[in-house]
Specification:
11 helices, 3-stranded antiparallel beta sheet
């Protein structure tokens, strides 16, 4: 459990002193901890998954806002690539490591034993949850300062770079479908398996009636990205 010194040190690193520190604790609480304490039907408001869901949208908005402000003449494709890099799990994992978030994550014993404090998915999701917690506790300006300082400029000012690797395949697929005048992609979870705290998801993406791709992941987000990556590859090869 976090001590007073732990909480104060983390709030200093985040640049925000939480009025509601329960929000901060919730943002750090992985679902494995709740599962082990209260079982698979535990209250979803006790772990950080809902905050992660909200933080993902807030992060996307704030990154888009800042990129448009900085680069008003940059084409949409390059803006999308920059954004995809900044909101990617790999980049957020780096942000989490800089903040030593792994030391503060509250895990169940199973995740603790399997190295959960170092897992990219857990740490990157925690950053999104913390962004949502800051927004709910301090508002948009507080959150914007964190995103600007830690996510966008944490390793020096971000600059347009055509060589950046593509990491947001869902956005890429949406753009390709629009360019090719195809229906917008539709995603659906077709299977979930495994215990509640360690599920594997199978996601299906459809573009129109004929184009279908499926992929698995340890989160819905990961499964969706992998399915989109497969579909992007197919569309590029077929040159529909």
């Amino acid at each position: 459990m976090e001590t007073r010194a732990d909480i104060d040190g983390l709030m200093h690193s985040l640049g925000h002193c939480f009025g509601d520190q329960e929000l901060l604790i919730r943002a750090l609480t992985h679902k494995s901890r709740v599962f082990e304490k209260v079982g698979p039907d535990g209250d979803p408001s006790c772990d950080n998954e809902q905050l992660e869901f909200l933080g993902d949208s807030i992060l996307g908005f704030l990154v888009s806002e800042e990129l448009v402000r900085r680069y008003p003449h940059l084409p949409e494709g390059q803006l999308s690539k920059l954004k995809a890099h900044l909101v990617s799990a790999q980049h957020l994992h780096t942000v989490a490591q800089d903040l030593c978030i792994g030391l503060h994550i509250i895990l169940g014993r199973g995740e603790e034993m399997s190295g959960g404090r170092e897992k990219k998915a857990i740490l990157s999701n925690a950053i999104e949850a913390l962004i949502a917690a800051m927004y709910l506790d301090g508002g948009l300006d507080v959150t914007r300062r964190f995103v600007l300082g830690r996510v966008i400029d944490g390793h020096g000012p971000v600059e347009p770079n055509p060589a950046l690797p593509l990491s947001d395949y869902k956005s890429a697929l949406q753009e390709i479908a629009q360019t090719l005048k195809l229906p917008q992609p539709r995603y659906v979870i077709v299977q979930e398996r495994g215990p509640e705290h360690a599920k594997t998801f199978t996601m299906e993406v459809r573009v129109g009636k004929e184009l279908v791709a499926r992929a698995e992941g340890v989160s819905k987000k990961e499964a969706g990205q992998r399915a989109a990556e497969i579909m992007v590859g197919r569309l590029n090869m077929q040159e529909v």
